Task: structure prediction
Amino acid sequence: MLNSLNNQKLMLTELVLEKYKVQSTGADGGHSYIITEIEHNKKTRKLVVLFSNKSDERNLKENIKIQVKGNLEDEGEEYDLIMSNTTIEK
Result:
């Protein structure tokens, strides 16, 4: 499911997500984000998906198949993967 466009620490990546949890914060009027697990470099890793547009956040519903595109950051196996500046692809 992982399609990396380069091999740097920060990779523009597209993923299709089917099983995930929608979480939210109370800061700045509240933000929603996704927590899931993906296969990355032959290991199952936790992934936190942060969206660039609040309109994408409002459309999130758990476990509905979505395609997302954003910057995937991997700081090492001891840390969660982070996808930032993410958009939902139509």
